[in-house]
UniProtKB/TrEMBL annotation:
<dbReference type="Pfam" id="PF05384">
    <property type="entry name" value="DegS"/>
</dbReference>
<dbReference type="InterPro" id="IPR016381">
    <property type="entry name" value="Sig_transdc_His_kinase_DegS"/>
</dbReference>
<feature type="coiled-coil region">
    <location>
        <begin position="117"/>
        <end position="179"/>
    </location>
</feature>
<dbReference type="InterPro" id="IPR036890">
    <property type="entry name" value="HATPase_C_sf"/>
</dbReference>
<protein>
    <recommendedName>
        <fullName>histidine kinase</fullName>
        <ecNumber>2.7.13.3</ecNumber>
    </recommendedName>
</protein>
<dbReference type="GO" id="GO:0000155">
    <property type="term" value="F:phosphorelay sensor kinase activity"/>
</dbReference>
<keyword id="KW-0418">Kinase</keyword>
<feature type="coiled-coil region">
    <location>
        <begin position="25"/>
        <end position="59"/>
    </location>
</feature>
<dbReference type="InterPro" id="IPR050482">
    <property type="entry name" value="Sensor_HK_TwoCompSys"/>
</dbReference>
<dbReference type="GO" id="GO:0016020">
    <property type="term" value="C:membrane"/>
</dbReference>
<dbReference type="Pfam" id="PF02518">
    <property type="entry name" value="HATPase_c"/>
</dbReference>
<dbReference type="InterPro" id="IPR008595">
    <property type="entry name" value="DegS"/>
</dbReference>
<dbReference type="GO" id="GO:0046983">
    <property type="term" value="F:protein dimerization activity"/>
</dbReference>
<dbReference type="InterPro" id="IPR003594">
    <property type="entry name" value="HATPase_dom"/>
</dbReference>
<dbReference type="Pfam" id="PF07730">
    <property type="entry name" value="HisKA_3"/>
</dbReference>
<keyword id="KW-0902">Two-component regulatory system</keyword>
<keyword id="KW-0175">Coiled coil</keyword>
Amino acid sequence: MNHMINTHKMNDILSKVTAAIDESKREIFDIAESARNEYNDLKKELIEIQKSIQTVISEVDKLEVLEKKSRKRLVDVSKNFIDYNEEDIREAYEKANEFQINLVLRRQQEKELIKKRTETEFRLKNAAQTLQKAENLTSKMGIVLEFLDGNIQDITSTLEDIQQKHVLAKRIIQAQEDERQRIARDIHDGPAQSLSNVVIKAEVCEKLIDIDTNRTKIEIDLLKKNLRDTIKDIRKIIYNLRPMSLDDLGFVPTIQQYIKNFQDETDIEVDFVILSKQWIEDKVKNLCIFRVIQEALNNVRKHSNASLVKLRIEMTKEYTTMSIIDNGLGFNIEEVESKDKIEGGFGLMNMEERVKLLNGNFEIKSTKNNGTRIFVHIPHDN
């Protein structure tokens, strides 16, 4: 009796969890609104800074012409001072000095504005990232709440042993930690290092701007390229967190787009075939299938040394089946599963757990030098 679950107590706990998640969702929504306002303000500020820079650049160009003329006039007066009276000489010196001072001031103003623009662009990017993450989290919170409200009674009715709850909680926590570690690693290896390089490039530009204009332009072009690459990396990380195209494009187009990107990045051919036209509207199942494909192709990219992957999906009213077969090196399943439990290197546990949570079957076959075959079967009943 000690091992049986007190469903009333569990429902009370789940209600509190749902309320806490709902409150967190509202807080995240407030963060998103604040980030959106900050983003819009920074965007306007950046536009104004750009206008100011253009104005100052135009003034610098005019002052350079005037300063050059005044120096020429001063040289002429100095050489032929006998032909000029004292007033002409004083006026030539004063104008040359005035133009030179104004030119220095305008150049300094231009330099400060460019620095301010760089800082504002950086803040704008951070605000955009915060906004995107907050919106993604709000969406995920909504999915969690929908799941808890609609399905938790069925789950509690089937959990008869408290140990099952303990194991599930450990797996969820481990999955969260693995995801956080992966995100941290992706950010550290990608955008974080790229942004450090951007800062260095910006400092180089700052030092060169009054010394070597041509070199400065080259460095700015490199700076812009680094920023574009960083934005691309950030978008990739966001996409891996939540493929928004699943909602926008649909299940099959999202997979096709992911495969195209995978082929472009790896030169590994993916032969993708849909064996039916019966789509399911269950977003959770679609996301689960997409994540299994994503994890499997990621394993191919990192470990298999394959040149070809065959992906087959069949959907009926009753079930979805999928096979993923590559011609790579293969591996010893027992060794990898043991290592995967400790290090999470291949993500086999993650794929299997995703499928099992949907009452599905997950099977993997592989031997060294004979490739890997993954088979998934997910029923469409509740």
